Amino acid sequence: MCTLLTQWAVDAALRDDAALILSELFTNALIHTDSAQITCRVLAAQHGVYLSITDQGQGLTGPRVQSTQCAPERDSAESGRGLLLVSALAATWGVANDPGHGRTVWAVLNLDGDAYRED
User: pTM surpassing 0.90?
Assistant: First the structure.
């Protein structure tokens, strides 16, 4: 994916963000669904990069950002912050459910770095 984004002239910082987001979304699909197949999609347009992971799993609840409040049990947790990272890096993200067929979790990164992140 990074090679493809390099060919599309996406800058290094955005490529790193895209790699992190796809890693988090893919890991969530592996851990939280019963999918036999997971599909990754990367699309570039004039002003942004669209990333998505589609799985076959159907859970009782959908993906959601965990609370950012500190608690002793959360301080030592080794996971549970993936969608918080996605939310911080992406201009927008969301979930599209296709009942009986699975779920797509997607994120959009703006090519104009100032538009998606406050520094």
Answer: no
